[in-house]
Amino acid sequence: MRRFPALSLTTAALVLGVVAPAQAATAGPPAPLDRAALREAIAVRPGDGAAGVVAEVHKNGQTWRGASGDIVTGRRVSPDAHFRIGSISKPMEAVILLQLSAEGRVDLDRSVQHYLPGLLPEDRFEEPISVRQLLNHTSGLPQDFEGAPPTSPDEDIDRRLDYVTFDEVIRQTLRPEGRPAPGPRFHPGTRQEYNSFGYRVAGKLIEEITGHSYQYEVTARILKPLKMRETRAVAPGRSTPVPRPYLPGYQPKGNGELVDVNVQGGLPASMTSTTGDLDRFISGLFDGRLLRPAQAAELFTVPKGIDGKPLPYANDANCNTGRGRGTACFSVGLMSVPLPDGSVLWGKTGSDPGYRSGVFASRDLDRRAVYSVGTSSSLNSFPAVAQRLALTAFGS
């Protein structure tokens, strides 16, 4: 059984290496991008656990793009290199369901049980779980393959080639063989906890409502309209390489040997892209090309309780810092990250074997950053390179 790694989300602020908002800086002319400092920020250092980096930054009408070379082979990495985007596909799934909502084909407040009867075992999931709760991580559903025994590094490398459908993930999670079946983690809508499994159910829902594959819908609704020509959903049913030029990503075997893991199977929502294409995506998402205003508002709304306050984040984990510490930071598809000047970026991180990526922007799109780190170790915490990049680009 293959596990799909998720990024550490202990605190949302660590995603961009920033701290709780301070007093807004004194107004003045916009500072130019420090290109030398940005190049230095993505230079791989000992202890980074990185093999190479590609990044793109936009600020105050200025643009910078850069790449650091593959330290394992010594080869140059192109700023146009492709990489695996992991959970950055989640906002795309959310967009599709928001579009279907605008078309009157799905109601975000109707239950999963209504649209997919029998999918959730009734003896364990009696309470209705709404489509919106799937998308804003308040469903209380179990995590992918919850309760499965841990796997070794060598097993992870071998199983990266497996392709697993939405149906297979759902069945192996909710109706596993040889171990107890999991139940809810909490009552739906009472707290927030990052949950990839909810998006496997959302992917199944997209395919059930439209009668098309996720690959077809994401291509027709997002990739083609935004001219994201370098972005592809993985080929169904088989393992595929990252298109050239690609950012190498490595995983260590048990004996320490590094394996280039650019060839993978994945899920129906697994995708490859470039920094330029992901910048097109977040720009099109925020400027109204993909969603009507009523649906776009869902992107910037964290769930609240009956008291009007943001829901608590589950397990006492820190989803925010400062006054928002321990409260919800995810909306439908996105996450919010406060900056030192009091402003907020919205975006998403993603993780696939060998890759840690992210895309974030301010709502007015004046500040945007996209990056991907090709790993050279079993990197579970968030990449130090990404934190340095964010602090250099947006830290003041």
What's the assembly state of these chains? single chain
Could you spell the SSE succession in H and E letters?
A: HEEEHHHHHHHEEEEHHEEEEH
Describe the main β-sheet briefly.
6 strands, antiparallel
Low-confidence stretches: 1-26
Count of DSSP H/I helices: 11
Structural class: alpha+beta
Cα Rg: 20 Å
Strand order of the largest sheet: 2-1-11-10-9-8
Distance between the termini: 45 Å
Assess the beta-strand content as a share of residues. Answer: 5-15%
Principal-axis shape: globular
Classify the helix fraction into a percent range. 25-40%
Tell me the total number of β-strands.
Answer: 11
Mean pLDDT: 90
Notable features of this structure?
alpha+beta, 3-stranded antiparallel beta sheet, globular, disordered N terminus
How does this model look, in words?
The protein has 396 residues and is of the alpha+beta class. The chain has eleven helices and eleven strands. The protein has helices spanning 35-42, 89-102, 112-115, 131-135, 153-159, 166-174, 196-210, 214-223, 275-286, 293-296, 384-394; strands at residues 50-59, 62-68, 83-84, 232-233, 250-252, 258-260, 271-273, 335-338, 344-352, 355-361, 367-375. The protein has a six-stranded antiparallel β-sheet with strand order 2-1-11-10-9-8, with helices on both faces. Strands 3-7-4 form a three-stranded antiparallel β-sheet. A two-stranded antiparallel ribbon has the order 5-6. Strand 1 (50-59) and strand 2 (62-68) form a beta hairpin. It is globular and about 55 Å long. Mean pLDDT is 90; it is low at 1-26.
